[in-house]
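To: structure subgroup
Subject: Chain for Friday's discussion

All,

I'm putting the inputs and outputs inline so they're searchable in the archive.
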Amino acid sequence: MSARSEAEVILRDIGQRQDGEIKLIDGALALAALDCPEADLGAYRDKVECIGQEVFSIRMEGVGMVDALNTVIFEKNGYEGDTLTYDDLQNANLIRVIDRKKGLPVALGILYLHAARWQGSVANGLNFPGHFLLRLEDRGQQFIIDPFNGGTQLTATDLRELLKGTVGLEAELTPENYSVVGNRDVLIRLQSNIKVRYQQAGRFHDVLRVLNNMVLFAPNAFNLWREVGILNAHLGNMKLAIVALDVIAERSKSKIEQCEAKELIQKFKSSVN
């Protein structure tokens, strides 16, 4: 089986799983393999597992979880946030991140989450806008970590400054900013970085390809199906647009979403006829 075929199988399997059953690292590597079909997924899984094992060894010496993770990921293995070529698409492809040892906050965060969970720790991504952050529990304490900047621990003051820098000076912290996001949402956030960059470059066929990959692992994210439908229509693929919107009309539990999808279907059908 080719890496691409294996990746599609993995993503479809994730699409059928409950959020807590999803292995982030498998999903992120599978998504990366779609653009790196020559990659040996097993070899990259082994590299990630080695990180977990290295963290475990340091933990056995009595080192705290955050310090152990930072030592292994950032100091020993040399990972870093890519500040010079931040918008490079490779920064959101976990295979290329592992090769280059640099990436976006969410890509580095996935490595961090996997290594922490490998130890049995509670670790999650946060619903923080503009910059992916992590919350880690260790020895009865909670830490908010910035995986892009060497695993720096952030205080409430740091978070407020970061929020104002990314959202605007009028922004203030809310409880929602501290809420955790699910594994599927982390993968969506990873792919959204790629999608946005393709949109900005006007590469709409690539945007559609990314969206089609996203609905493999998030088949109930009806906002994504809506984007698939509208973009297909924009590209002249009216029949595919209707197929995508039919998913919303038939499966969404939201009457508003259903009605909007049905209206668009009728509009697109009239254009086909």
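Points worth raising on Friday:
The first helix runs from residue 3 to 15.
The beta strands are 80-81, 102-103, 123-126, 134-138, 141-146, 152-153, 180-181.

D.
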